[in-house]
Specification:
mainly alpha
């Protein structure tokens, strides 16, 4: 377990210091600033607009960071042989994968907390004090969603055979998970039985990110704590399954 955290610390520090991560965070902060400037010009509640776009920035910035981490990690492992350097030390395969996941989550924690704080300040500055209480739980669930996506990044890194695949696999998983209700609708109204079956399979295999979506009504979490518990339980079960498959894939790469 200690070696897992050593790997996690290495991964987190390696990427937190990388400028591309902070460029992604600044892109999310720019969304909040844009909302603050746009709010007074529109016939909407400025605080609500800043809150909604700010939370969207938390999610989109995190997804962008994960895609970049996936590509750069694949490059490091494939081209620079960084994985070989790690595994010559007494670190097991499971410890390496667990450390990689925790390291990714550490980077996501820094980015999500930074943008959530920026969103909180933006909503307060826009006069939306009544909306502040819902920002933290909504941002927390978005962080859990991103950590769940990170488990798939770790999984796909064991399956990817090219740098393009390291980007496209996680992106496809995010799109499928984000549009899970849409997949269900098209599956129910598909003209072809084969297409309907395919869409149902994709919907079952893809993570249901709608479970973590409080961007529209963050205050709803305060009235139903079971919503958060269910989302966390889903993330633990799905994430554990993804990491188990990643562990098997990691072992097969050596043969």
């Amino acid at each position: 377990m200690t070696r897992t955290f050593v790997v996690a610390r290495y991964v987190t520090l390696q990427w937190v210091r990388h400028k591309i991560v902070w460029v992604s965070v600044l892109a999310g902060a720019a969304i909040v600033l844009f909302a603050m400037g746009l709010g007074p010009l529109m016939q909407v509640d400025p605080g609500r607009l800043v809150r909604d776009l700010g939370l969207a920035g938390v999610e989109l910035s995190g997804v962008l960071i994960l895609l970049l981490l996936s590509g750069m990690t694949y490059f490091d492992e494939a081209e620079r042989r960084s994985l070989t350097v790690v595994l010559v030390k007494p670190v097991s395969k499971g410890e390496y994968l667990g450390g990689l996941l925790l390291g990714f989550c550490g980077v996501l924690l820094v980015s999500s907390a930074s943008l959530a704080a920026f969103t909180f300040a933006g909503v307060w500055a826009a006069g939306g004090t009544g909306l502040l209480a819902g920002i933290l739980p909504a941002a927390f669930l978005l962080f859990v969603e991103l950590c769940l996506l990170a488990t798939l990044v770790v999984l796909f890194l064991q399956q990817a055979t090219s740098l393009v695949g390291a980007f496209l696999y996680p992106l496809g998983a995010f799109v499928a998970g984000a549009f899970s209700p849409t997949l269900r609708y098209f599956a129910e109204h598909a003209d072809s039985a084969a297409l309907a079956w395919t869409l149902r399979v994709v919907r079952v295999l893809a993570p249901n990110f709608e479970l973590f979506n409080l961007k529209n009504e963050p205050g709803a979490v305060g009235s139903d704590a079971s919503f958060v518990v269910a989302a966390l339980a889903y993330a633990v079960v799905y994430g554990s399954a993804a990491m188990l498959v990643a562990r098997v894939g990691f072992a097969r790469r050596e043969h």
